[in-house]
Write a structure and sequence with these properties.
The protein is α/β, with parallel strands linked by helices and 224 residues long. The chain has a single domain, classed as Isochorismatase-like (Rossmann fold, 3-Layer(aba) Sandwich), CATH 3.40.50.850. It contains 8 helices and 10 strands. A 6-stranded parallel sheet has the order 7-4-3-8-9-10, with helices on both faces. The longest helix has 16 residues. It is globular. Bound molecules: dicarbonimidic diamide (C5J). Dicarbonimidic diamide (C5J) binds next to helix 6.
């Protein structure tokens, strides 16, 4: 068990029932020439989350926790990409168009991969999702149920899009979600701040917000 400082209140968490969920730390969102860049974003703004995520990932692995990574992206034939999603952005750099990291937001292309700093280990599930939420049209819920997971520590990008959508989906399914603020990032700092505030508001309407530092200190004093 750990006692974790969080907003709106401290939590007791059983690590045996907890997974670390790392959302979409992909080159397509984090590096120039990918999907995020094609939509006109300053992708360098997301890099601030890499080091805190790496620390948390290392700690979760050391504790033997379940670690799950997600990737947003589509089949090469785009049969799972809603036309309304593909139609957004400049035609030359839409989903499926060729870019410096291969076809934009397409599975199997270099840009679709998770950044080297947070590369999954062979035994860590990677959930490929066609949407923003990690539960939508994936087997994530089945994996969590099979491993009796009740709590999710959530990291990744972007705070107000895929992290938020996933936390909302998880909250509706009964999971306790703790979003680690410094392990998430947005192209829009104000959306990051507001997105986190929205999670913890109203007594934790979607979940809790904590930080990598608070998790580290909780882990250092964990009890059986
Ligand atoms: C976006 C994501 N921003 N992973 N995806 O389109 O947040």
């Amino acid at each position: 068990m750990i006692a974790l400082k969080a907003n709106p209140g401290a939590l007791q968490i059983d690590l045996a029932q907890t997974a670390l969920l790392i959302i979409d730390m992909q080159r397509d969102f984090m590096e120039p020439g990918g999907f995020g860049d094609s939509l006109g974003n300053d992708v360098s703004r997301l890099r601030v989350a890499i080091e805190p995520c790496r620390r948390v990932l290392r700690a979760a692995r050391a504790k033997g926790m379940l670690v799950i990574h997600t990737r947003e992206g589509h089949r090469p034939d785009l049969s799972d990409a809603p036309p309304a999603k593909v139609a957004r952005g400049k035609p030359s750099s839409r989903i499926g168009a060729p870019g410096p990291m291969g076809r934009i937001l397409v599975r199997g292309e270099p840009g679709h991969g998770i950044i080297e700093e947070l590369a999954p280990l062979d035994n860590e599930p990677v959930v490929d999702k066609p949407g923003k939420g990690a539960f939508y049209q994936t087997d994530l819920e089945l994996m969590l149920r099979n491993r009796r997971i009740a709590n999710l520590l959530v990291c990744g990008v972007t705070t107000e899009v895929c992290v938020h959508t996933t936390v909302r989906e998880a909250n509706d399914r009964g999971y306790i979600c703790v979003v680690l603020a410094d392990c998430c990032a947005s192209y829009f700092p104000e959306f990051h701040a507001t997105g986190l505030a929205m999670i913890a508001a109203q007594g934790g309407i979607f979940g809790w917000v904590s930080s990598s530092d608070d998790l580290m200190s909780a882990l250092s004093t964990s009890t059986a």
